[in-house]
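If it is no trouble, can you show me the amino acids of a protein and the C-alpha cells describing how it folds?
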Amino acid sequence: MKIHRPILLIGLLLTAVALLTLVNLLIGTVRIPLAQVCRILLGDDSNEIWTNIVWQSRLPQAMTAIAAGAGLAVSGLQMQTVFRNPLAGPSVLGISNGSALGVAIVVLLSGQLSGVALSRLGYVGDAAMSVAAIVGALAVLLLILWVSQKVKGNVTLLIIGVMIGYLANAIIGVLKFLAPEEDVKSFVVWGLGSFSRVSGDEMILFVVLMAILIPLSFLLVKAMNILLLGDRYAANLGLNVKQARMLVIISSGVLVAIVTAYCGPIMFIGLAVPHLARSIFHTSDHRILMPATAVCGALLALFCNLVARMPGFEGALPVNSVTALVGAPVIAVVLFRKRKDDIGE
C-alpha cells in the first residue's frame, strides 16, 4: 500500500490540475458557460468573442501557468537540495536578478540610445526583452559555475550568489534613476510577473521548452538523493560532488532563465512548493518529490492565475502579489504543522 500511495496522490493532484485548468477557462471578467467552453475546444467558433477569449487568452495563460509553476517548483527543490537550505529558492544565486538586469539594460537604455521606448515596439520589444532576460540569466549562471570551480563550500557559493543579486539590483537602481519615466514604468510592469504575456507561437515554444527541460532535470534524481547525505558521504559512495553540484545548478538556472524570460520574475512558488510537496508526501526521496513538486507547482500557479483574473478586477492583478498572498499562509501552516510534529515526537 505504501508503494502505491505516492502514485495515488500524484494522480489526484493531476486530476486537480485538469479541473483547475478547466475552471481557468470558465472564470474571468467574462463568464463562459461550461457547455460553450467544451464546444469551443472541440472546434465550434460560432461565438467569435468567446472563442477568441478561450483560444487567445485563457488557454495560453493556463498552459503558461502550468509550465512556469512546474519549472519554478523543480528549480526550487534543486536549490534547496544542493545547498541543504530550506530557505533557498530559484533566485538564491542571483540568476533571476541577472534576468532583471538584462531586461533593465535593454528597456531602460533603449529610450536614451535610440530615442524610442522599447514598450512602443510591440512584438519586437517583447522579443528583445525575452532575449535580454535569457542572456542576463545565463551570464550570471556562467559566472556562478566559474565561481563554483574556485570555492569548495556551498555556503560560500550561496553568499557569492546573494552578493551578485545585490550588485545586479544596485545597477538596476542606477538605470532606473537615469531612465525616462515611460521606460521605468515598462520595466516595473515586467517585474510584477504575468502569465498573460505569452501567447500564440511563443506559448507553444515555451511549453515545449519546459516539457523538455523538466524531464531532463529528473535525470539528476539519484545524484540529488546522494547529496542529501552530505558531501563527504556522497564522495565515499563514488559521487563526483563538484560535478553533481554543477549539473544541478545548471538545471535549476536554465529553468529559471526560461521562465523569467517569458513570464517575468515569478516569486515564492519555487520557495514554497517544495515544502508543500514534502508535507503532502512525507518523504525526502527525490524519485517521488521531483514529480510531486512539479505537479504541486503547476497546481499552485493555476490557482494564482485564477485569483489574479477573478471577476471584479479590471484586467489582472500582478501575479507576484497573488503568489505571496496565497503561498505565504500555505507555507506557514506547513511549517507550524512540521514544528508541532517534531515536538510531538
In short: The mean pLDDT is 83. The radius of gyration is 21 Å. The CA atoms of residues 130 and 262 lie 6 Å apart. Residues 48-83 form the longest helix (36 residues).
